[in-house]
Amino acid sequence: MSQASPSSEALSSPITTADSTSTTADDDKDVEHGKTPPAQSLDELVNTLKTKDTSKVIVRFAAIGNAPILKQSYYKITASNKFQTVIQFLRKELRYQGSDPLFLYINSAFSPAPDEIVSNLYKCFGTGGHLIINYCTTAAWG
Amino acid sequence: MTDKDREIARAIWNGKIPIQFIVDPANPRDALFIEVPRYSFLPLITPQLITHVDQLQASEPHSIWYEYDGEPLKWHYPVGLLYDIVTRMRPNSAAQQLPWRILVHNENFPETVLLRNPGIETIQDMYMSMIKEADFLRHGSTKKVMNLSKQDQTQLWHALSTERYDDHWNVNQHILDDRGVPLRSVPIRLYLPNQCPVIQDTASFTNDEGNLMTLGDVLKTIVPGLIVTGDTTTAPDFVVVSHGIELSLHTPIRWASDHLSYPDNFLHIIICRPIPSSSSPSL
């Protein structure tokens, strides 16, 4: 079983529910769609938005070409992390050195910038309750 | 796109910011003044600085970074977006005076704040990724970009780096061509004050009844706390800015996306406090 890292923890069992609501417990967010809270002042609003989103996003890693395969493909990652965390986590899991090339893509389509936020990526590009991340050792989709 | 609309898109493309690049603050005469297109990126300026400024001639492009008023500038953001962020997020800022005075550094790269390895190849790759991400949001796949010939893909970036609007538009119009593909989400990113994380979420071009959404509708969808439903009587305590222009919340989102997006096809929207006794123009 893979080692849990501070920012991303390995699931101890295979995912049984591929439901995005497994982003559990954090019901204190009022930024969810469908609700219409009263208009806040800009400062109040920003304070709300800056509250760390501790919910988890399930990412599914899929190797492409001759990239090494992970022991497990599903991981939970804290939603407020940057994509950089995902890159570093994958490198660590694969025991890749800094100079080894590794390319990460969302939905076999594009590479997000390392400072994009996991929750944003999940909201925009998540499918079936998780965010699909393809990785390979040579550039695959330009 | 009508001729009038095309003129607006072209005017947005032609927007420039006069910048004073200062290498040695103790010796302000060692500065380079350049008018930089709002859509351009700082790594595209770096080679000019290395060529023209003696102190930088031995520098690696990757080691050069830029700072305004103590804040390292994100080199992968368009210059106009950076300028709007620093001028709008801190009222009374000296940045509202032009030229915009930027400090240039060639050592102590702030790796914890900025993405590493700024360079023309890196920014080109990032630009192509952004335009694919926008295509994915708008059309649900990156087919429009991937179906372009290699030459056309290269032309997108080349037109941007050589400031040729027509060359860019001639390719980009194929990406924005929605025939045969249902429109999905508006490629939009929101920037708020006080180091708020960037917000990106899905929002449709039309509502459930098929009516076109406005910019205000889209902001309400993404940040429900921002706008009270149907409330147009009270002045909100924020303004919405892109390309240095305060936008009306009634702007149709489809029109905004097609005419006010940066060349990466994203609307980059700043939500900030109004400038007191604002004299800035609004659309």
Automatic annotation (TrEMBL), chain A:
Keywords: Autophagy, Isopeptide bond, Membrane, Protein transport, Transport, Ubl conjugation pathway
Alphabetical list of InterPro entries matching this protein: Atg12, Ubiquitin-like_domsf
Low complexity composition-biased segments: 1-24
Annotated GO CC locations: Atg12-Atg5-Atg16 complex; autophagosome membrane; phagophore assembly site membrane
A GO MF label: Atg8-family ligase activity
Location of the region described as Disordered in the Swiss-Prot/TrEMBL record: 1-45
GO biological process: autophagosome assembly; autophagosome maturation; autophagy of mitochondrion; glycophagy; piecemeal microautophagy of the nucleus; protein transport
UniProt xrefs under SUPFAM superfamilies: Ubiquitin-like (SSF54236)
Pfam families with a match to the protein in the record: APG12
Annotated membrane topology: Peripheral membrane protein
Nucleotidyltransferase keyword on record: no
Subcellular location: Preautophagosomal structure membrane
Quaternary structure, from the entry: Forms a conjugate with ATG5.
Function: Ubiquitin-like protein involved in cytoplasm to vacuole transport (Cvt), autophagy vesicles formation, mitophagy, and nucleophagy.
PANTHER family: AUTOPHAGY PROTEIN 12, UBIQUITIN-LIKE PROTEIN ATG12
Family designation: Belongs to the ATG12 family.
Identification of the protein by name: Ubiquitin-like protein ATG12
Organism: Absidia repens
Automatic annotation (TrEMBL), chain B:
Stretches assigned to the Autophagy protein ATG5 UblB domain: 186-271
Primary location recorded for the protein, binned into one broad class: membrane
Domain Autophagy protein ATG5 UblA, chain residue ranges per copy: 12-105
Name of the protein described by the UniProt record: Autophagy protein 5
One Pfam family, short name: ATG5_UblA
UniProt record, GO biological process: autophagy of mitochondrion; cellular response to nitrogen starvation; piecemeal microautophagy of the nucleus
Entry function: Involved in cytoplasm to vacuole transport (Cvt) and autophagic vesicle formation.
Domain Autophagy protein ATG5 alpha-helical bundle region, residue spans: 121-176
Keyword Transport: yes
Record bears the keyword Plastid: no
Family per similarity comment: Belongs to the ATG5 family.
Gene Ontology terms: cellular component: Atg12-Atg5-Atg16 complex; autophagosome; mitochondria-associated endoplasmic reticulum membrane contact site; phagophore; phagophore assembly site membrane
Compartments (UniProt record): Preautophagosomal structure membrane
